[in-house]
From TrEMBL:
Its cofactor is pyridoxal 5'-phosphate. Keywords: Lyase, Pyridoxal phosphate. It comes from Lysobacter niastensis. It comes from the Bacteria. This is Threonine synthase.
């Protein structure tokens, strides 16, 4: 969203609209305010309170620049609402895969940082596998684009990590499409999950995510709520700090990934945590 705000300013756009499961909208508000932009955020009303509350507080403090619309039950309905009410009236959509690619350019940071030399090394290289919590899938495309560009300038070779996309079993369109051998997802009925960022019943760019998964020799896998909760509680006991539910979903997927041979012992594997734990704490207290 830092990239979105910067590009919008560069091109003279002043009014941005985004549907979100939470984090993207919260982030856009912060960068938009710093950049002198106005923004409307549409999100489900069951978004974790620190996220929803942050946007609501900004809307109260800056009523002429931030508007919050509670629309759900998922980002899909929020997006349809903005298309009907705001986009025809001059607001520029920065929804996933519906803006000019700025969000993918921002998400390239993931791929660049994963390829950078680790301490003590000088050679750019990639891990053997990346476990990524996948809702809309912008991060998957961003990482892949970064690696293609690094290869084009001779920084890395053609080998790619296995892309292992993790979803909640309660809303798993990518997993269903991958298992069925389908070229794209079909919209599924959304469930209720602690990992609200994964509660995406269908995505505009899922066909490309599936292409990348298959090209990398990866997979799309689902974890259930009990597994996410168990991993969240275990992470607290280990470090007295939380990872986000989406990050916990990645760690919870490790046993099945090992069993299926998608991750092997001794490999360099990266599991990505995509959310700030403090934004979820009120909904996770029961796991302490």
């Amino acid at each position: 969203m830092a990239m979105v705000a910067a590009q919008a300013r560069r091109l003279g756009l002043t009014k941005l609209a985004v549907p979100t499961q939470g984090n993207a909208g919260d982030s856009l508000v912060r960068y938009a305010l710093e950049g002198g932009l106005s923004v409307v955020v549409a999100m489900p009303d069951d978004t974790p309170m620190p996220i929803l509350g942050g946007v609501a507080a900004a809307a109260k403090r800056y009523p002429d620049r931030v508007m919050l619309e509670l629309v759900g039950p998922t980002i899909r309905e929020a997006g349809a609402f903005l298309k009907e009410r705001y986009i025809p009236n001059g607001w520029f959509s920065v929804a996933t895969f519906q803006e000019p690619g700025w969000r993918i350019e921002g998400k390239k940071s993931l791929g660049l940082e994963l390829a950078e030399p680790v301490p003590g090394e000088t050679r750019w290289s990639l891990p053997d596998a990346v476990i990524y919590p996948t809702g809309g899938g912008t991060g998957v495309l961003g990482m892949w684009k970064a690696w293609d560009e690094l290869e084009a300038i001779g920084m890395i070779g053609g080998r790619r990590p296995r892309m292992l996309c993790v979803q909640s079993a309660r809303t798993a369109p990518l997993v269903r499409a991958f298992d069925d051998g389908a070229a794209d997802t079909t919209v599924v009925e959304a469930g209720q999950t602690l990992a609200v960022g994964l509660n995406v019943p269908g995505g505009v760019g899922h066909f490309r995510v599936l292409d990348i998964i298959r090209a990398s020799g990866g997979a799309a896998v689902a974890v259930d709520e009990a597994e996410i909760e168990t991993e969240l509680a275990a992470s607290w006991r280990r470090t007295h700090d939380w990872i986000s539910p989406e990050g916990a979903a990645c760690l919870a997927a490790l046993p099945q990934l090992l069993d299926r041979g998608l991750v092997r012992r001794g490999e360099r594997v990266v599991a990505v945590n995509t959310g700030s734990s403090e934004k979820y704490l009120p909904t996770l207290r029961h796991l302490l």
